[in-house]
Sequence to fold (192 residues):
Amino acid sequence: MKKALVVVDVQNDFCPGGSLAVAEGNEVVPPLNKLMKEFLDRGEPVYKTRDWHPEKTKHFAIYGGTWPIHCVQNTRGAEFHPDLLDDPRITVISKGFDERADGYSGFDGTQLAQLLRDEGVNEVWIGGLATDYCVKQTVIDGVRNGFTVKALADAMRAVNVNPDDGKKAIEEMKEAGAGIVGDEAKAAGQKF
Fold:
C-alpha cells in the first residue's frame, strides 16, 4: 500500500490575519510539517494544494459568489504559511484558477489523480484548511477517484460559517468512505 500526503491550502489568507482566516488555522502547520518530513524521509510523495484565484472570479462575493477576495494569484495572501515546510520534492497543485468554478477540491481541474496513479499510490492522507470546504471536497473526491483516504483530524480546522459545519463535514467524509484519524473535535473547530 503506497501512501501519499496531500496538504490542502495552508495559505496566508486562511490563517490568522488573512482575508478569510480560519480560527486557529495556523495550528495545522506543526502536525503537517511532521507528517511531510516523515513521508519525504520514506520516499513517499507529498503534494501541497493552493487556491490560485484570478482577480475576478465568481467565487468572490463582489462577483456574485460567497467569499471575500482571497488567495489571488501572486499575492502574499496566496503564499503558503511561512512556517509550512518547503522542500523541492513537494509537488504544488494549483486550483481555483478557473474564474467560473469554485475549485474547492484538490482534484477539481487538476492532474492530482493522475499524478497519484503515476506514483502507484493507493492510500492518500489529507489535512489542511478548511475542514468544511476544501479539505472535505478533496477527501470526498479522493474516495471517488478510487483511493483509500485518511482525513487527518489533528491537522485540519473548520471555517464554521454555521456552528456545526466542521462536525457535519467530518460526518460527510465518513459517509463517503474516508477514515478519520485523530481528534475529530479539533477538526470540527469545536471549542474546549
Q: What stands out?
A: The chain has a mean pLDDT of 94.
